[in-house]
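Why Nucleoside deaminase? Reviewers of the renewal asked for a concrete example.
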Amino acid sequence: MSGHHKYMERCLELAAMAKAAGESPVGSVIVKDGLIIGEAIEQSKTLKDITRHAEVMAILDAIGKGYQLAGATLYSNVEPCMLCSYVIRHHRIATVVFSKACGELGGTNPKFNLLTTNELASWGDAPEVIVL
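Here is what the prediction returned.
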């Protein structure tokens, strides 16, 4: 099993936990230097806050532990949406790996490609995007 698949398996475990809690089945993991530095499940319904997507919560988890995210890899079983893409870009995460597209709200949607555009100089280069 490749490194990417190992971390995606953890996302799927987290997604199952989210589903069991009545949330959308999304899990996210942040990895830096081969270590999981943050992870989370979707919590929008539980916390009654639309911003509590798994990716944002994983980023907050890593930041809360004192980690810098520049150069890290974010894994999610679902493509980060535009909201999550903004947060990913702000923290200069270098690589994003996901396994399922989320459609018109996805950060790689060509019409609103917040995750992949290089047109916003203040964010620097777009992260590498890997779809498993």
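The longest helix spans residues 3-20. This is the kind of structural detail the renewal will allow us to pursue systematically.
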